[in-house]
Amino acid sequence: MFKKALIVSASLLALAACSPSETAQSAQPAAEAVQAVPQTPADWEVSNAGITFLSSKINKQLGSVTEQSRFKASQAVLGKDGEFKMEVDLSSVSTGIEIRDQRLKDWVFETAKFAKANVTGKVDVDAVNKLAIGETVNLKQPLVLDIHGKQINLEADLSAQRISADKIMVSTLSPVLLDVKAMDMVGGVAQLVEVMGLSSIVQQIPVSFNAEFTRKE
C-alpha cells in the first residue's frame, strides 16, 4: 500500500511539473492567431454574394403565398478607404420557374435598358479591419441603390464577423425593404398580376444579403 502511495504521489508531481509548459503551449496558438490578423488597410472583395428577396402574391380568393428568389451573379468590393461598391446582374434573377424569370427580366427589371443594379456606401472600415478572429461588429449602414434609373437612399442593419485572418462574413441582421413604386416598377408588376390571374402582389420587397469577403493586399 505504501509503495502504491509513493507511485501515485510521484505521478501527481510529474503532472504538476508538466502543466505550466503544456498550458503555455496551448495558449500559444491562440496568441499566434491574434497576432496573425493583419492591421494594415486593405481591399476586401466578394463574388456572387447571397442576395435573396421575398415576393408575396395575393390570389383572387385573397389567399397569400410568399416565395423566395435570388440573384446568382454579383460582385462587390470594400476599398481600404471604406468605399463600398456592389454590382448585381439583374438578368441572373432566379425564381425556380424559367418563364417567371423571363417576365421579371422583360417586364419588371427591363434588363434590356437597365442591366445592372448598383449599391454604394461609405463604411467604417477601421471597425472592420480591427476585428479579431471570431469577433463581430454590427453596423447601421447608409447605402444608395441605383436601380431601374432611380437612386434610392437606404439603411441596412449589417453584421460583420471575422472568420479568419483574411475572411469576413457580412450579412443583413434584418431584410432591407424595397418599394416597387420607388423603383418605378409598378407597370411591370401590374403585368405580372394580370398574366398570373392574381388580385395583387405586395409592393414591399424584403431583400437579404450575406457574403464572405476576402482580404486583398
From TrEMBL:
Signal sequence interval, chain numbering: 1-24
Gene source species: Neisseria animaloris
Descriptive protein name: Lipid/polyisoprenoid-binding YceI-like domain-containing protein
PROSITE patterns per record: PROKAR_LIPOPROTEIN
Keywords attached to this entry: Signal
Residues annotated as domain Lipid/polyisoprenoid-binding YceI-like: 43-214
Pfam families noted in UniProt: YceI
